[in-house]
Amino acid sequence: MGLFKKIFSSEKKETLDKGLEKSKTNFFSKLSKAVAGKSKVDDDVLDDLEEILVTSDVGVKTTIKIIERIENRVARDKYLGTDELNQILREEIAGLLSETNVGEATDFEIPKNKKPYVMMVVGVNGVGKTTTIGKLAYQLKKKGLKVVLGAADTFRAAAIDQLQVWADRVDIPIIKQDMGSDPASVAFDTLQSGVNQDADVIIIDTAGRLHNKVNLMNELTKVKRVMQKVIDDAPHDVLLVLDGSTGQNAFEQAKQFTAATEVTSLAVTKLDGTAKGGVVIGISDQFKIPVKYIGVGEGIEDLQIFNKYEFVDSFFK
User: Fold this and answer.
1) Backbone angles phi and psi of 119, in degrees to 5
2) Is 207 annotated in some ligand binding site?
């Protein structure tokens, strides 16, 4: 398969390889035990592989699809050696993701026909939402775009302060009000300010509370409705940030948020500190929403564009 074309620079690929080291080591230590003393991919090996994929947080539904693809390959090729299993996994998982993916990003870019381009960022507290916003703002500014931030997570003083730190670090304007202010009011002010400043991109941080779906839906719907008084088709992107280190919990959060609001893209963070990197494969497969960004380190450059082929290549290398 000609799927694994070089897209990242060697430096970025190195960062991705390093960021997935724990996940990769965990996976291959289990796989090597499963195939020890076996030369052929048979039913026993496939049963073990199924268990390994599930315990690596790939998710049950995606694991079943992967195993079916490998079973079909075994049936077609008649004989597959266990020494080929790694390459087969890379090819079949990349093939699976290429079937289900929608609108994959190739760069930190925004549509040219929307100005300002409005992004609303959602996700529970502690997933790395504000850090993702800061790093994304840095990447967009680096491309010569004028960015404005809006601190609409007004339920925690720490959230406003943290976003201010990132705004100072990246040297971009931030619109904020006091803690406890109406989030929709902050969003309204941010969009007006962005329009007045001729901004290219406006990024709105929202409250990170996963309360019941009805409250969450009402809150986010209100923020959207107020935004549309300034820019009638805002927001143009609703980015859900998920913590990859929480494994299956990230799936649950994705289900809750996609049920509560129209999520259009995903970011999966904290992959460098966890052995649960397989969650990205499952999330990319199961939610028909593109994974746009992944966090593979703490540095300001360590938010990367998610490319499924580069990711699978690093995971199964």
Assistant:
1) -115, 130
2) yes
